[in-house]
Design a protein that fits this description.
This protein has two helices and 68 strands. It is an all-beta fold.
């Protein structure tokens, strides 16, 4: 039976000892896909494998799987190359942006020499890495570089320039004291000496276009259709003809050639051994003893018996929106739009949606091999029957509309139920965007580019699902240039951003499915949106009933939203003004606000396009945290969705590059105390110099902290379910070592709680 743990052996050991930039903590976890295995290396009965957003370590005898990603040690996502030395237990990871992670038993070191290097403006993606002893040869768009793994620094680099044009090294390896590189113009070689960097001194051993190379005592390389054994002299073609070579691997016993549909093995003399079909496409393969293991594109590591081995995760990393429901169940949509509102992002992998049933990730077989073009912007579960799943397909092709599917827990799969075409009689009209349910479990859809006659495709519409007739009733609004975002249901209205024009809609369904009496209340520039705004993008409503509306160039708040929205002429949306250097400044001015989410303590999570995620106080005046891809495990600085599980406080950050979670401090906040917890405790200054967190508090908590003699050293009023104490006394100086008592009451004094904090300076 497979075991999954986050405490690793071998190259993943001691990850708590982080070198260089430390961006992870125990509060973070990844929900990445580990299906697409890019490279593998064997280590004494274990396989170390690299996937798109992390590496994992599979022990064949026990089934144990450990993983390492940006959530617990790495510094980037989008891995493009990987190799590992089983003797030294050192791995080297290369990323698409040109950076590197050196993974050792003592930690992870981040290397950014290539991304910040000047003088070369081409692709800095790491194409390939090959480790020999303590040296690694790295293939990049400009040629090759030699990296010293012990010193963690670069040695020589050879720039392949011919006719003033850079030639990429597709792959390279070291054999003896010589570097071999395969390029689009031939197999190039050079000894590692003083003339190594000079491209004119490199020899062309064999002209041609070659893709892959590897060595371990002997050397093998390949074109797209032919693999060669090279022992000096003229390369000898191996006996098989291939369709499309994906990789060549050489180990102590075999040469392994991964073709489009099969893996071929040869001994190190070039004699053919056998061919193995894994039933799907592989990126790479290796042998351990007499067994062949494939690194697949869609199933992780696969053995000859078609058993698969990988950390659990969604089918792909692409993600756009997420729905949380039931007992820890998750639905993830994988679509997207260019420019936030119009052109669908075409994904050739046609990913559909992903489902987590509370125990494991499940991918609907409906999407495998389906020729319909799916660009799913939203997927939700029906509260009336959680096994009924609805999703929107937003595209310009046949098949756009809303779909209904039924989940079967026994088969762990989904069956197609019905397709609703919404009357899409034009290639661009009636594209469904988002779905939401009201408090009577009625389903509503936001629809972009609806209309008739002269207004064809120019209006935003709302679709109401009629369960009896099993169809959608469409109601056009008067909002021109009719793009739409996912609606939010609150107090009988659908609150819907309009991303293409400077407007926002609150749509009153009158709590019925009938569309004849519906009313759309529209806010625009005259209500206070920025003059230059191109549209609204996101909305959230907080515990005070204020609507926080994010636009393409800032944030606006509509106070007492439900009271004022029905008289739009009197409604005013206002910016939040914060003090910066003694001057008032508009919060998030000129920033595109992708998503806003309110947690159980009324704090706001705000995603800024290109700016990461901000965690704000309830009134927005104070930034509590600011996460970016540079200082946290966020895979990108453009987070397309945020969801908070209010029961647990866990926060989900969704992006086109994958999903990560953060364990927040605020959960299930009420007027009374929950499970009060203080951490870290004890506070040892030599180990921790931050603030002490007290969580599980009431919505409003009066706090007094006293020393052992009963003297009050600190007092405060905490709002939102948690508090951070900086260990300073009333005079602003750090308290002395000792035991401190935390005495707490809720707002009206009806509930009390106590805690102790040990301080060691």
């Amino acid at each position: 039976m497979k075991k999954l743990s986050l405490i690793s052996l071998g190259i993943l050991a001691s990850l708590q000892i982080a070198n260089a930039q430390t961006i992870s903590s125990k509060k973070w976890a990844d929900l990445f896909s580990y299906n697409n295995v890019l490279a593998m290396k064997e280590d004494n009965g274990k396989i170390v494998a690299a996937a798109e957003n992390g590496i994992f370590y599979y022990t064949i005898s026990t089934g144990e799987i450990t993983k390492l990603s940006k959530a617990n040690g790495l510094h980037e996502v989008k891995i493009s190359a990987f190799d590992y030395n089983p003797q030294t237990k050192i791995g080297l990871i290369g990323y698409q942006n040109g950076s590197l992670d050196v993974v050792t038993p003592d930690g992870v070191t981040y290397v950014v020499d290539i991304p910040i290097a000047t003088g070369y403006n081409g692709s800095k993606k790491i194409n390939h890495i090959s480790i020999t002893g303590d040296l690694a040869v790295i293939s990049v768009g400009y040629g090759v570089s030699i990296f010293d793994l012990k010193k963690k620094e670069f040695k020589d680099s050879a720039f392949f320039i011919s006719g003033g044009v850079y030639q990429a090294s597709n792959e390279a390896t070291i054999l003896g004291n010589k570097v071999f590189s395969v390029t689009n113009t031939g197999l190039k070689t050079h000894e590692m000496n003083t003339t190594f960097p000079v491209f004119t001194t490199w020899a062309t051993e064999m002209p041609g276009s070659f893709k892959h190379i590897d060595s371990e005592g002997v050397l093998s390389f390949s074109s797209a259709t032919t693999a060669y054994l090279y022992n000096g002299g003229t390369p000898v073609a191996l006996s098989q003809t291939f369709t499309d070579v994906h990789d060549v691997v050489v180990n102590n016993n075999n040469i392994i050639v991964t073709d489009l549909s099969r893996v071929y093995t040869f001994n190190t003399s070039g004699t053919f051994g056998n061919a193995v079909a894994f039933g799907e496409e592989c990126n790479t393969a290796t042998t351990i003893g007499s067994s062949v293991y494939g690194g697949t594109i869609l199933s992780g590591i696969k053995n000859e018996s078609s058993n698969t081995f990988k950390p659990d995760g969604p089918y792909f990393n692409y993600a756009y929106k997420i729905s949380l429901y039931g007992d820890n169940q998750i639905l993830v949509s994988s679509g997207g739009r260019e420019g936030r509102f119009n052109v669908p992002i075409i994904n050739t992998k046609n990913p559909g949606f992903y489902f987590f049933n509370g125990m494991e990730w499940i991918y609907p077989s409906y999407f495998i091999g389906n020729t319909t073009s799916f660009n799913i912007l939203d997927v939700v579960s029906d509260p009336a029957d959680p096994n009924d799943i609805f999703f929107t397909n937003y595209n310009n092709n046949v098949g756009r509309g809303i779909y209904k599917m039924k989940y079967n827990a026994s088969s762990k799969d989904f069956a197609f139920t019905k397709y609703y075409d919404l009357g899409t009689d034009s290639p661009v009209t009636r594209r469904p965007v988002g779905l939401t349910f009201d408090d009577s479990n009625n389903l509503f859809a936001s629809i972009a580019f609806s209309g008739e006659g002269a207004a064809l495709g120019a209006l935003t519409a709302v679709g109401a699902y009629d369960r009896t007739a099993d169809n959608f009733l469409i109601s056009n609004t008067t909002s021109l240039f009719g793009a739409a975002q996912k609606p939010l249901y609150y107090e009988g209205l659908l609150w819907m951003p309009i991303p293409r024009i400077n407007s926002f809609i609150a749509y009153d369904t009158k709590k019925t499915l009938s569309i004849s009496d519906d009313t759309a209340y529209i806010l625009n520039q005259s209500n206070g949106f920025a003059t230059a705004s191109g549209g609204t993008i996101s909305v959230a409503i907080d515990k005070s009933g204020d609507a926080w509306i994010g636009s393409d160039i800032g944030l606006r708040v509509l106070s007492n939203a439900i009271s004022v929205i029905k008289t739009p002429a009197d409604a005013v949306v206002e910016p939040i003004i914060i003090e910066q250097n003694g001057l008032g400044e508009e919060l998030f001015r000129d920033s595109q606000i992708l998503q806003i989410e309110v947690d159980a303590g009324d704090h706001k999570w705000v995603s800024v396009d290109g700016g990461g995620v901000y965690y704000l106080s309830a009134d927005g005046q104070r930034t509590i945290k600011h996460f970016t891809k540079e200082n946290s495990p966020l895979p990108t600085n453009s987070i397309t969705d945020i969801k908070v599980d209010r029961k647990t406080g866990k926060v989900y950050f969704v992006s086109y590059s994958g999903i990560v979670t953060y364990q927040g401090d605020v959960a299930d906040v009420t007027s009374d105390f929950g499970n009060v917890l203080v951490y870290p405790n004890p506070v040892v200054y030599s180990n921790f110099k931050g603030k002490v967190t007290i969580k599980g508090l009431a919505e409003v908590t009066n706090i007094r902290i006293a020393d052992a003699a009963g003297n009050v050293v600190h007092s405060a009023v905490a709002r939102g379910g948690y508090y951070e104490w900086d260990l300073n006394n009333q005079r602003g100086k750090r308290v002395a070592s000792g035991i401190y008592f935390v005495l707490m009451t809720n707002e009206d004094g009806s509930d009390k709680a106590t805690a102790k904090i040990a301080v060691v300076n």
